[in-house]
Amino acid sequence: MKKRLLALGLTLGLALSLCGCGGETPPPEPEEEPAPPVVEEPEPEPYVPAGTNPLTGEPMEPEFEDDRPVAVMFNNLKAAQPGISRADIIYEVPAEGGITRMLGVFQTLEGVGTLGSIRSARTYYLELALGHDALLVHAGGSPDAYSKISAWGVDNMDGVNGGSDAKIFWRDAERRKTKGYEHSLLTSVEKIQE
Hints:
alpha+beta; five-stranded mixed β-sheet; three-stranded antiparallel β-sheet
């Protein structure tokens, strides 16, 4: 029993000594002042031109809304199509021999650059261009297309039989070597606008 009393006394002494070791409780940490609220500035509205493209209905600069569209005859070879990706409308129509040609219609040529390769017109392409009252840019045409250009009064620039209009076209030497003569005729926005 002595041992029990001794163990109980030691346990009690140890418990009391642990209670007394705590000393003073430290003062509470000062509360941090809340950070000022973050005021997020709204992102600026993206610029949207005030005009409307009559071919696509999308916004465009107002000074181009009343421009006359330009319809350009393109070859349907990916490597022979600089400029076509900027067209507002692209018509792809079968020509003879199972090939297709494309007619790109541009409301404005602003920023387009070089266009080509320029190909010949067919009667159905004349009808598409006339549907937009567009100036047609082409290099030659079928006999029927040539007769309709004259009969229908199609405003056009021809790289083959165009007289002074032929000055707006040139043959690219590298394309002539790598793609062939018929895929090398190019023009540019600057030349058309001149």
